[in-house]
Amino acid sequence: MTKKELRQQIKQLKAMTPAAVREVEADMVFNKIRSMPVWQHAQHILCYWSLPDELPTHEAVNRWLALGKNIYLPRVKGDDLEIVPYLGPESLDDNNKFHIGEPVGDAVDASCLELIIVPAVALDKQRNRLGRGKGFYDRLLSTTTCPTIGVACGFQLVDEVPVEPHDRPLDYVVTSDYDSSVTDA
To answer: How far apart are CA 46 and CA 141, in angstroms?
Structure first.
């Protein structure tokens, strides 16, 4: 299956999955992540502010901020992602090209990050990730060395994600019914 075909297949499955189901799956995913030593030791975490068709992150991001973690969100600048501190929902602006809630404020260097939570269209157990196709995360991940966790709903875990030479495998994959940190331990 090609990347384009897989994106289309997952898009159809997303359309059939109620938002309430995605919220339940998000709770399961982010509870698993909170129990991981890599999360517990990280103080500077990049997550994403979810779009309606993505695994919801809003609750987890706000909960982690309340727990004293330094949370960062991406902001699109040209073909790249800038890393910006998240200070709460009031610090977001969706007046941008993609109408995505992005943090306002000054960008920081990605070298401060200790963990990156990466959204995915699809994931596989070999820790490969299929994104939306713009390469934003591929470019960002090529510049960092901190651990990465790909997250998605359970139906987004597939047998095999098509990969290309520029695709970097993630360190962990977590869905509602799969956690590579437990499976590989």
So the answer is: 11
Residue 146 CA to residue 131 CA, distance in Å, equals 19
- Using 50, 70 and 90 to split pLDDT, how confident is the model at 98? low
pLDDT grade for 76, boundaries at 50, 70 and 90: confident
DSSP string, 74-126: EEEETTEEEEEE---GGGEE--STT---EE-S--B-GGG-SEEEEE-SEE-TT
Instruction: Give helix 58-66 / helix 19-34 axis angle, nearest 10°.
Output: 30
Task: Please check whether residue 63 is in contact with residue 89, taking contact to mean a CB–CB distance below 8 angstroms.
Answer: no
- Give the chain's count of helices (H) and strands (E): 6, 11
Question: Residue 134 belongs to a domain with what CATH number?
Answer: 3.40.50.10420
Q: Please state the pTM of the whole predicted model.
A: 0.93
Token pair, residue 172, equals 């962990």
Expressed as residue numbers, the domain containing 11 is 3-183
Number of domains comprising the chain: 1
> Which helix H or strand E contains 10, and what residues bound it?
helix 3-15
Question: Position 128: which residue type?
Answer: N
Question: DSSP label at 134?
Answer: S
Highest mean pLDDT of the ranges 128-137, 146-155, 176-185: 146-155
